[in-house]
């Protein structure tokens, strides 16, 4: 603690109290110790524990603050106030702006590239007299028009606004916007048509069509726009009311159709052919005064051609609830697209047949116990019963008789075996009764009880036999089993 | 940097209006100097009578051969007309939105640039604004002043209608500008004013005159109000509402007060009253609705204070939108109402443009801060047009100094710098270049 007092003094740079000569002596070793103070130990702690610091303390790393992120590579960017030359200007005006010191002083002004001139059409006196003569326009006025269009970069609204030809013919003035546009574009068209054209025909036609202007159509259109604007409030209200009415009608129609749909679903089931339903493409047709009529027309036209493909965003309705008549056309269509229609009412008694994979409908072997044997029979022929690679309708139809005949083969074999067995037993009994042919029967005798005993196995044996009927490799396969 | 296309060349933007002159650096969002356009001037006794010129708005006096050649001391800025000086007149170079008297323009500009902004105009390109109905002679004169007197390196004069549209971020707009002296409706298409659709009138002056007439004349409930400004009042005592005021005039100042100063001071008082009391009903005139809005208390510098009824308050703003039949009968040259101006402007535009313009209505100018104005305008427009969108910035700087702000945007664009009229071009082509370049 005495050391801390000395520290305070040294920190505040207060001279030590007029002490004896011993004080500097005391202080010196302290200073030396402090100089030796290892890194990582706080000064106060060191003052407490003195030089006898634990060895581990010396291993303390110097505490470090999180490193500052190094933003940017090259330190400060130098900006200069420097004059620049604008290539878009024709004079030598040099304005100044702040630019990065690293950039080229004589670089192109970056905004000069936006100074784009539109294509100009200029005609000579000769061309004018040959091609461009017009009853309503003098050459001077045409010149004036072209000057204005150039000046305002083809903004015809502005051109029309500023159009004030001093020697205008009172018959044709004031010029309307349509007059101005018509004259300008017709002159341009004539020039393009009659001048040699460097490019191909398509580009010329494209240019000509971009210069086309139908004056009478424009005037009519503008008149419509004006009429639309000059409607009285009553007219607007009436129009709105009519529109609302139409919407209401449409809504009613929709609800009615939906109800009928529901009803048919519950009565007939969906087998009436959901995909075959006429498509209600109300989104596509415009607002019609007679939606009923229109819808009918659409329904009849859509139904036969596209039975499966409902176009996007359409409501399916049941306007045609009866199963579609199989016309010759639709049959041909079905064949072409490999579509098979299951007559659901015949196939199952259920009112609704859900969507299914045909492979799940492969007919099963009838007595469940015979499954294995039938499978073996099929295996012998080389047909995989469980996994039909292509369970098409035809394949399934062929598979069925194969299965049933296999089944009957198995049955026949079974009954044959039984008859043989009976025959053998009867023979054996006969032999035993006669007691003559004991030697002869000894070869068969051990078999007989075995077969009788293992009644459960009899079937499998019979199965093996059945296989042997079909295949000559029967003995081999039996051994393997 | 290229993203927004800005390239600042430290241009100055100068926007002179009837009430204030705005100056600042292009690229800023607020003008650095806002100086009242009205200024005080003292004539030397020798030349008294030489300067009737700068009278009130409307006085035609452009052709005075040598206006105040003898010494005239101008008092410009915040301490200009508002400080009472013995024998000081008040002048305003603007009338009808245009500069009518160019003699005081250079000192005003100089005050803004040199005294307030502390910059040297000869080092900066200067963009000046003009009213859409400005005359070619006027803009050439302005160019001459800037080039010859201020030695600017480059100059451009742009239209406030276009600039207001730019400040609102639109290339095409219908700009409704309500200033101190003039209301205008300007159709702007692709950055050009359609001059045929342009219409303006002195409607704010009519509103002002109406308010002044209402205050200065006695009504059944109160006597005429003396519109004396505080500069002329020595002392006053508080009185109850609707009681006669008790105040002492500064008799020493009365003889030295000129008519122009008195008119300016009265106008100031009326403006104050309008701004704090008057309004316009958002849904059209209806006396009952107006009275339901309640009365508002206002005290004049004399100490007289009254409660102004709703009908009084709202009849003032109604002048913007409708004129009473007796007023029309008594005054044939009445300025058009705002809806009439708009209909006039729209109907002279192409039908194809009408939809675009009505969808981009820009309301601007300090006068449009009249209480309830924007709402009423919207009501009026929706009544007449089907699709209307009104852009009325709520920020006072943007609304009042829209023209300056548009100029600030325009003059800081990199692509704009090719349009400056340089001093070289001015010397080469003379005045004609102004009309060619500034379309």
Notes on the structure:
With 481 residues, chain A is mostly helical. Among the domains of chain A are: 79-114, no CATH class; 125-228, Homeodomain-like (Arc Repressor Mutant, subunit A); 364-428, no CATH class. Chain A contains 19 helices and four strands. Chain A has helices at residues 2-11, 22-36, 43-49, 125-132, 139-151, 156-162, 177-194, 201-210, 215-229, 233-268, 291-302, 328-336, 344-347, 371-381, 393-434, 438-442, 447-453, 455-470, 474-480, and strands at residues 79-85, 94-100, 279-280, 315-316. Chain A has a two-stranded antiparallel ribbon. The longest helix of chain A has 42 residues, at 393-434. The model of chain A is unreliable at 19-25, 275-324 and 440-481 (pLDDT under 50). Chain B is of the alpha+beta class. Chain B has a domain at 204-319: Actin, Chain A, domain 4, CATH 3.90.640. Chain B is 33% helix and 19% strand. Chain B has helices spanning 105-116, 136-149, 160-167, 203-216, 259-277, 287-292, 310-318, 325-330, 338-347, 351-358, 373-384, 396-400, 402-410, 423-429, 432-437; strands at residues 12-16, 20-25, 33-36, 39-43, 72-75, 89-91, 94-95, 98-99, 126-130, 154-159, 173-178, 183-189, 192-193, 199-201, 233-237, 246-249, 296-299, 305-308, 361-364, 390-391, 421-422. In chain B, the strands form six sheets. A six-stranded mixed β-sheet of chain B has the order 3-2-1-9-10-21, with helices on both faces. In chain B, strands 11, 12, 13, 14, 19 and 20 form a six-stranded mixed β-sheet that branches. In chain B, strand 9 (126-130), helix 2 (136-149) and strand 10 (154-159) form a beta-alpha-beta unit. In chain B, helix 3 (160-167) packs across helix 13 (402-410) and helix 4 crosses helix 5. The relative contact order of chain B is 0.15. The model of chain B is unreliable at 47-68 (pLDDT under 50). Chains A and B meet through strand 2, helix 6 and helix 9 of A and helix 10 and helix 14 of B.
